[in-house]
Amino acid sequence: MALRLGDTAPDFEADTTEGKISFHDWLGDSWGVLFSHPKDYTPVCTTELGVVAKLKPDFDQRNVKVVGLSVDPVENHAGWAKDIEETQGMAPNFPMIGDPELKVSKLYDMLPNEAGDSSEGRTPADNQTVRTVYIIGPDKKIKLMLAYPMTTGRNFDEIMRTVVSLQMTAKHKVATPANWKDGDDVIIAGSVTNEAAEKIWPDGWQSPKPYIRIVPQPKG
C-alpha cells in the first residue's frame, strides 16, 4: 500500500551501525530524517553521506535524528564509511541501517514485493528507487517525502530548510511561501479566520489579496 503524507511512518526493527533499533522507540519525541541508498559504494550516495555527517550538529540543534539506510548488510557499511571519510572529509556519525532482506525498503514502498528477499546479487540499478527522503514528526507521521534519481544528488540545504518550515508551521498558524528561507516573512494559514488572526497579529498584516496575509516570521 502506497505511503502518503500524514500516514504513520511504518515501525520496524533493524540492525544498524550503532546497534539494533526499534524505529519508533529510537525516534522518541524527536523529529526524524530517514534517507535511503540503493547500495554501498555508490558515488552520489557517498557524497550525500558526507554532507549529512557535516550537517548533523544542525540537525541535533533542531531535535532531528538522522538515519541512513542501504540495502547491503551492516557489516559492509564500515568499509564504505572509511571511503566516505577519506573522500568527503567526514565519516557518517549517525546510524546506517542494513537492509539485506529488503524488508524496510518494501515496508516504505521503495521496492515492490516481487523484488525478492535478498540484496545479494542486486545491482544499484535494480534498487534505484531506494533513493527517498522521509521527514517524520514526533507524532510518527510522515511530513515529507522526496524521491531522487541515482544521477541527481540530494540537496540537504533544501531538506534542512524544509525541516525548519515544518517545525515552525507545526507550532505557529502560518505557512511558508515559495523559495522561503529562515527569517523571511510568512503567510497566515488559510485555516485562520481574520477575526482569529487579529488576536494573534494585532498589528495587522500585508494583504495584496484578501486570501494572502503576510506577516513576519514568528519567533521561537
Describe this entry's structure for a reader.
The protein is of the alpha+beta class and 220 residues long. The chain has 2 domains: 13-154, 3-Layer(aba) Sandwich (Glutaredoxin), CATH 3.40.30; 172-215, no CATH class. The protein is 30% helix and 22% strand. It has 6 helices and 11 strands. The strands form 3 sheets. The chain has a 5-stranded mixed β-sheet with strand order 5-4-3-6-7. Strands 8-9-11-10 form a 4-stranded antiparallel β-sheet. Strands 1-2 form a two-stranded antiparallel ribbon. Helix 2 (43-61) packs across helix 3 (74-88). The longest helix is centred in the N-terminal third of the chain and has 19 residues, at 43-61. The model has no long low-confidence stretch (mean pLDDT 96).
Notable traits:
Glutaredoxin; 30% helix; elongated; alpha+beta; 11 strands; 2 domains; 220 residues
CATH architecture classification name of the largest domain: 3-Layer(aba) Sandwich
Low-confidence stretches: none
How many E strands? 11
**What is the straight-line distance between the termini?**
38 Å
Largest sheet: number of strands, sense, barrel closure:
5 strands, mixed
Strand content: 15-25%
Counted by DSSP, the helix tally is: 6
Give me the secondary-structure topology.
Blueprint: E1 13-16, E2 19-22, H1 23-27, E3 31-37, H2 43-61, E4 64-70, H3 74-88, E5 96-98, H4 103-107, E6 132-136, E7 142-147, H5 156-171, E8 174-175, E9 186-188, H6 194-200, E10 206-209, E11 212-215
Parallel strand pairs: 3-4, 4-5
Antiparallel strand pairs: 1-2, 3-6, 6-7, 8-9, 9-11, 10-11
Helix pairs in contact: 2-3
